[in-house]
Write the structure tokens for this entry.
Amino acid sequence: MATISEIPLSGENQTFPITLNGTAYRLTFTYRDADEAGWIMAIADTDGTTILSGVPLVTGCDLLAPYAHLGLGGAMLVVSDGEPDAVPTFDGLGSTSHLYWITA
């Protein structure tokens, strides 16, 4: 049975610790204010060593699917309220666009 948890976000650049599937990480979300840019995610271990960086927050797909070989143990999905394919805006991240962690 899948477990779904929302990762709490706000419409600002942010870095915070989080435990996913029993492992501690640091997530960083940065907004790139340029055409076709938007929100970018990075995942690091607790020492700050980068595991992934430059992952765009796009709707409608598992953000971690291309990195299954890392064994993070779950999926991350961005879902927007109302219009499912809407790109997360700067102010909308965490309010009208949500990031979910899903484990099998």
The CA atoms of residues 78 and 99 lie 5 Å apart. The mean pLDDT is 93.
